[in-house]
Amino acid sequence: MNVGKINYLTHSSKTKCVFVDNKDLSLVSLDIWCKAGSSFEDPNKNGTAHLLEHMIFKGTNQIMPGEFDHKIESLGGLSNASTGYDDVHYHVLIPPDNFRESLALLTNLVSSPRFNKNEFRKEKGVVIDEIKQQNDQPEEKLFNYFLKKIWKNNNYSNSILGTEESVKSLEIEDLVSFHREHYFNERICLAIAGNISSKIFEILYESDLSGINSKKIDHDIQKISSKKNNFNIPIRLGREEVKFDNLEFSRIIMAWRIPSLNDQKSLIGLEILVSILSVGRNSKLVKVLKEENNLVESVYADVNVGELGGLLIIEASCDNKDLNLVEKQLNKVIDTVSAYENITLEEIQKGINIVRSNYVFNLETSTQLSSFYGNELLWGRKNTLYNIGSYLEYWNNIETFKEITNFLNQDKFTLVASPS
Asked: Are 48 and 178 in contact (CB under 8 A)?
């Protein structure tokens, strides 16, 4: 898998940088990543990280509200941002000739936001509308409820958006404090991908990165950082039934605890298992529950994983009258797979091909490349893409793949939701 030439460097500001030089791509993606996701929020300040992401686009001492987007668009570019549980990132996609101005604009925006009271009030309203829209989607509301139930602490159990009540209670000082604690060079990295000329290297080297500063790490920051090194956050086990408003179909969600993003080898194996279970008509779950018995509207498996740990999730939707039978059939298939009774090498190889193709399809554009390599560098992982081939080959063995199906032998959590 050739994505281009990869170079790493540390800027004079001590900000870590990664370059992905691919001459087949006409545009350049500049992506700033920061360890400032919602898992770093105080428990009673849920929604801070996401609201801060909104407010960062409302200007600095050099940029007026709305001016950033206008300037990036006038340079022929696009901008966007996203907040997750572990991190947040801000990115622009621009022609290479406009890199200098785009770099100055984006770094100033992220490092030196100005919090205007009127804009703060407006953005609170925007975020609260997002929360209302999410709560109007029964499936999303149910999945948030599931996360709240399965994770035993606040890191991954709270909604990234926050609740209406938590967002309403936030003050400007909460955002100022969060930005001060998390937005500095030791918690930030830059990723640049696309057709990168020597001129772009020179521009970055000469730039002061518009205010991305170092910070003396005090006791509170060390305490916050140590939280992220706890890769063993626990999950709840057992089974729960719940009635839920406005569900079109009943839902069964099962989940098992799996390793964090640091265990790439196991996660590749789990992605192969997910393909065996639910990708295609002949996959284990789809064949039994949908194709042969027409018991479900849908069934899928997924790997939901972060820096603190992850979940292997299986979800099925069905008519309420079939709920008990579907759960029995799910458990029967899972028991068979976990006992390794009917896994074939051909199925494993098919899963390997699907996983390999997914990596190829998801690393085709400048934006995809800067996102992948930026996130990897932020959390101390380098060149993991080069290991994927060897990991796929490792799991291409009927005996070693038992290590992956053994995850299904662990105790699980099951949530059964039906329309109220």
From this structure: yes
